[in-house]
Amino acid sequence: MPWKNKSLSPDLRADLVLAQMTEEEKLQLVHGTGWGVLKPNTPVPEGDNGGAGYVPGIKRLGIPDLNLADSAVGVRMAALRGRYATLLPSTLGAAASWDAEAAYLYGTVIGRELRAQGYNMSIGGGVNLTREPRNGRNFEYAGEDPLLAGTMTGNLMRGVQSQKVMGDIKHYALNDQETGRNILNAVLDKKAMRESDLLAFQFAIGIAEPAAVMCSYNKIDGDYACENDYTLNQALKRDFGFKGWVLSDWDGTHSTVKAALHGLDQEQPGSVYFGESLRKAIAAGEVPASRLDDMVHRILRSMFAVGVIDNPPVNAVVDPFQGRDDAQHIAEESIVLLRNAGEVLPLQQETKSIAVIGSHADLGVLSGGGSAQVDPPGGNVADPKRGNGQWCKPVYFPSSPMKEIQKKAADAKLTYSDGSKLEDAVSAAKGADAAIVFVNQFMCESRDAATLSLPDHQDALVSAVAAANPNTIVVLETGGPVSMPWHDQVKGIVAAWYPGIGGAQAIANILFGDVNPSGKLPVTFAARDADLPHPQVPGLDPAKSKPGTPDGAGNVRTPFEVNYTEGVRFGYKWFDSEHKEPLYPFGFGLSYTSFAYSDMKVNAGEHAVSFSVTNTGHRAGTEIAEAYVELPKSVGEDFKRLAGWQRVTLAAGESRSVTVVLDPLTMSVFDTSKDSFALPKGTYRVLVGPSSRETPLAGTMIE
Asked: Using an 8 Å Cβ cutoff, are 494 and 474 in contact?
């Protein structure tokens, strides 16, 4: 077995194996073995580790099985084998940290726990942009901007693979809503596609060098994503230089010859198209044998590159304490302080009475649903039967904000109301020095929210409590942006996202000031649905849709088109170009201290901007300094683009010079006639500040 020589390149090692393989063995690697544990009464092969997918290896050649696990925010289905898995904050929450090191840490947690449980591949790594803010899976992704999302997801997957576990980036591409995900046709011109959704993948893939990319369910300009020549062969494999393999989302393969020729390398989870059908297509000359070799080469070279052959998983006991500590650290960087009127926060430990209201805050924190659902230790704390939960049913983890708040204010009287009865909530609020209302928005794969509004009459709950207590603070546990018609009625608003197993500790540390909030929004919060590019989720009838339908189509069964006529103008770019005021802008987040910007210098030759940031407050804090560019007027854009940022931690009164390198791709325009990016000639405006809507420093550079 000369391929066991670790000094050889992954590609050479793959070729050496390939030369010894039979056609049957090659075909064995390009498809899964079925749904396994995911569907009742489905065979589970020997060697299947109980995860989302399984591909038998080639034992005579020393090629191990592939055991794939859903693991967007932690390892899924750990309870099936009596295992434990850490629930991390939502990846959207992690993106609010704007911290690539935290993203890498996030990935290492997943990687080490997968490895300990016997898996050698993660199928997390979602980087679909928040083009549709009501998308049920936004909590699995990393926001609306391609540079931020690509950077955070790329570093997350780099962390996974650092543990000798293969990873993927998904769902490629334009799978930006769940409604009709299997039947919709996403229509977007190539220029806009390359400058937005595909650009996020390009950044992520460049950073992570992932083993695989998972193609999505939807069509793109008329062709299914898993048999789309432009996105797979031309953009991904040719332009991005992707060396790994493309695997389909589960049952996302639709053909044999077209899919094989247009770039799909592995069918999941079964073998309808890439088993016997592919063998026959090769025999008939419809698919070249060299194409099968390419598929297998890509799989093998990825296994060698990441190290799953040289360093196979070793079963071990997951360390739940390290996992909890890491999750808490990430959550503390992820929580965003949106409002702090009258400096109601941080709360004082001497506070005599606090009302805690809503969202099972006496018991735990909410998690997101679907294939990202992690099993809660001890079962769902909000379920009297303590079950692990069903598909798209809310699951709460045993991390009690109320208990942690009590620890901070040991002598305070705490009163809890579940919020189900307004009169009880109001009564609790009236008698307290402060009222903390926990509100939630449960989101899940296979369904979208009909609106940005909080469900279950929670807006009325907040308004009633705010009327009863002048010191009302709202903690948001949501899968994405929500509208807040009551935002000016309350004194404090904290976006905690889905905060993970260390969420209660992180929330309490933020509320009481043990941690100074530093998170900033990775998505725009619109005031109302009418302000969005698509006021209604395409294909979803809010009056008729039934959440949680298996195909994600809501009430829709007829294929339909989603025309992304806004192009690249979504999120903050939409609000800029439409001159609309968001509720809270992209990049926004408050601190318990204050910062000032000064002394800006633009280095056009280096594509960099330097400036000073000063902590003008009375305590240490971390600022996320953001740099945006406006392209030359000849381009015709009326919005800015995020081009870079830097986290800066400063003591009270400290000042520091900061240099942010402006990523050239963020300043480039995709020329479809040349099929490449180019920096337009002319004068660029460079803007620097604490958010997309507050940029006190401005300069220019000429290209």
From this structure: yes
> d(Cα 75, Cα 86) in Å, to the nearest integer?
7
As a whole number of angstroms, the distance between CA 587 and CA 200 comes to: 17
State the Cα–Cα distance between residues 53 and 29, nearest whole angstrom: 12
> What's the pLDDT tens digit per position in 544-603?
655 444 444 445 578 999 999 999 999 999 999 999 999 999 999 999 999 999 999 999
Mean pLDDT, range 403-410, rounded to an integer: 97
The answer to whether 70 is a known catalytic residue is no
Q: Where are the beta strands (DSSP E) in 72-119?
A: none
- Token readout for 162 is 């650092």
Cα dist from 367 to 74, 90, 382, whole Å: 11, 8, 12
Please write down the HEC assignment for all residues of 607-667: CEEEEEEEECCCCCEEEEEEEEEECCHHHCCCCCEEEEEEEEEECCCCEEEEEEECCHHHH
H helix count then E strand count, the chain: 17, 27
SS (H, E, C) 6-45: CCCCHHHHHHHHHCCCCHHHHHHCCECCCCHHHCCCCCCC
Nearest residue to 376 (alpha-carbon basis) of 363, 358, 357, 361: 363
pLDDT digits (tens, 9 = 90+) for 601-616: 999 999 999 999 999 9
The single-letter DSSP state of residue 249 is: P
Which amino acid does the sequence have at 308?
V
Q: Which residue do the tokens 């229509």 mark?
A: 187
Strands, E, within 481-570: which ranges?
Answer: 492-495, 561-563
List of residues 6+ apart from 511 with CB closer than 8 A:
345, 346, 347, 405, 408, 436, 473, 475, 494
pLDDT tens digit string along 327-339?
999 999 999 999 9
Task: Give pLDDT tens digits for 108-129.
Answer: 999 999 999 999 999 999 999 9
**3-class DSSP state of 122:** strand
Continuous segment of H or E residues that includes residue 306: helix 289-306
In contact, 440 and 458? CB cutoff 8 Å: yes
Cis status of the peptide bond prior to 171, with omega within 30 of 0: yes
Burial-class residue 463 by CB neighbours within 10 Å (0-12, 13-18, 19+): middle
Full-prediction pTM beyond 0.90? yes
pLDDT given for residue 386 in this prediction: 79
Retrieve residue 5's tokens.
């020589």
Q: What is the mean pLDDT of residues 373-392?
A: 89
How is residue 587 written in tokens? 């990049």
Q: How far is residue 676's CA from residue 662's CA, in Å, rounded to a whole number?
A: 19
The single-letter code of the amino acid at 95 is: A
Residue for token pair 């044999």: 256
Q: Identify the active-site residue in 99, 249, 448, 663.
A: 249
pLDDT at position 123: 98
**Residue 384 gets which letter from DSSP?**
T
Is 604 buried (19+), middle (13-18) or exposed (0-12) by CB count in 10 A?
middle
